[in-house]
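Saturday, quiet lab. Running sequence design on the structure tokens for the scaffold JK sent over.
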């Protein structure tokens, strides 16, 4: 019989990895609470039509899509935003704005597996819907900064741009939407020469191509300086100037409120999803060439699903990518219980007593295991030591008659007989 393996692009998380993943996931929930985002849970499977509506050709071509037994075309979600937009356009349509909605879970894309890129991966997703104001965009940037800080990352930076700058140029040049989307996809992959060819063939002017050529080379940390140069590049495109001013307003709000965020303004920055309409950003660490998270403004998606006009801004963070970044930076982030205890009965007759002590410790919030393999004392202690337990609580007949147990400190290599009422104190819980 052949050995079973995981499906390509999927993987198992062993206990330590799972612990770190859950630690980051719990951190995303704490950040949601801090910023007033309410959790919703949406299906992993949605109609293909919903997910394909404005996701972009790159994502559409990599969806896990199939027909169910009812001959319906469905797909595994490649991201959360379409599902949240569906909910806001339907069930939540009459609820008061703004919506602050949070989701966390697995998403699926048929990408080529490589470091930090799998076909099943985990995201936390935050959507702020109902406001078209710059402070909503600023809040999403600040929220992402909070998450990276609380997860324990040492060094990370934000790359920020504005889709409206490029889209407005294309619109004024009367480029068709297909050419626009194709160009943006190529720019997202930094294939600028190919993108310029698409734009040129679609009928863009020399002036447009010159402006774009300057924009894609324009990036830096001096916000005021980069913004001024961006305006110069698009001086003949009124709506593009408005987009630059919007970007400037958002970044000024972030910097002036005292939130210390390492921001690089990237004028030629584009993201693969077609539904973005305004500010876009990614957060990354120097050691990895993959984004840890990204998002932006999308003001017309809810309408696409039959809802009212609802401006929105959101972000998705890669939980497993944050875990990878923490490993690269050698950050120990996942804190387990303060003490881990194993309860060992010295013989079969004391099994019930051992279970009673385990119950008592767990009720006090102590991570407790019971020796369930029937090992002799020396072997049981050796095993506890190997697995990094802190204390062994040894249940013996002689000590029980005196209302006591033996507690062995496995780190300090010392043991004491302790009265039952003093157990918690002895293992330094209280």
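Result came back. Writing it out in full:
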């Amino acid at each position: 019989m052949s050995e079973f393996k995981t499906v390509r692009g999927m993987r198992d998380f062993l206990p330590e990895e799972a612990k770190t993943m859950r630690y980051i996931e719990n951190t995303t929930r704490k950040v949601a609470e801090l910023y007033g985002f309410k959790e919703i849970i949406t299906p992993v499977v949605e109609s293909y039509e919903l997910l394909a509506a404005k996701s972009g050709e790159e994502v559409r071509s990599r969806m896990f899509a199939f027909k169910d037994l009812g001959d319906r075309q469905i797909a595994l979600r490649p991201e959360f935003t379409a599902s949240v937009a569906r909910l806001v356009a339907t069930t939540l349509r009459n609820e008061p704005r703004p919506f602050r909605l949070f989701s966390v879970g697995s998403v699926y894309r048929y990408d080529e597996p490589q470091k930090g890129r799998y076909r099943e991966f985990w995201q936390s997703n935050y959507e702020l819907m109902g406001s078209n104001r710059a402070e909503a965009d600023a809040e999403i940037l600040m929220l992402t900064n909070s998450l990276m800080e609380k997860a324990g990352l040492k060094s990370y930076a934000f790359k920020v741009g504005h889709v409206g700058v490029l889209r407005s140029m294309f619109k004024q040049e009367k480029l068709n939407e297909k050419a626009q989307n194709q160009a943006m996809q190529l720019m997202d992959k930094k294939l600028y020469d190919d993108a310029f060819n698409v734009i040129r063939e679609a009928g863009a002017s020399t002036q447009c191509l010159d402006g774009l050529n300057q924009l894609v080379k324009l990036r830096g940390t001096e916000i005021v300086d980069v913004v001024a140069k961006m305006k110069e590049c698009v001086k003949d495109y009124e709506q593009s100037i408005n987009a630059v001013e919007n970007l400037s307003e958002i970044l000024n709000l972030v910097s002036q409120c005292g939130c210390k965020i390492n921001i690089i303004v990237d004028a030629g920055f584009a993201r693969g999803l077609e539904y973005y309409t305004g500010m876009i950003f990614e957060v990354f660490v120097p050691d990895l060439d993959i984004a840890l998270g990204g998002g932006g403004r999308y003001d017309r998606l809810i309408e696409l699903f039959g809802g009212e006009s609802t401006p929105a801004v959101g972000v998705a963070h890669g939980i497993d990518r944050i875990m990878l970044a923490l490993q690269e930076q050698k950050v120990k982030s996942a804190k387990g219980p303060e003490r881990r205890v194993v309860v060992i009965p010295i013989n079969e007759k004391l099994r019930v007593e051992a279970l009673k002590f385990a119950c008592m410790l767990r009720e006090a919030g102590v991570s407790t295991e019971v020796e369930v393999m029937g090992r002799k004392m020396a072997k049981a202690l050796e095993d506890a030591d190997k697995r990094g337990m802190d204390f062994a609580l040894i249940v013996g007949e002689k000590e029980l008659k005196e209302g006591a147990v033996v507690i062995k400190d496995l780190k300090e290599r010392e043991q004491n007989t302790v009265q039952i009422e003093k157990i918690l104190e002895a293992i330094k819980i209280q």
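Notes for JK: Residues 340-426 form a domain with the Rossmann fold fold (CATH 3.40.50.800). Residues 15-34 form the longest helix (20 residues). Ask whether to fix the surface positions before the next round.
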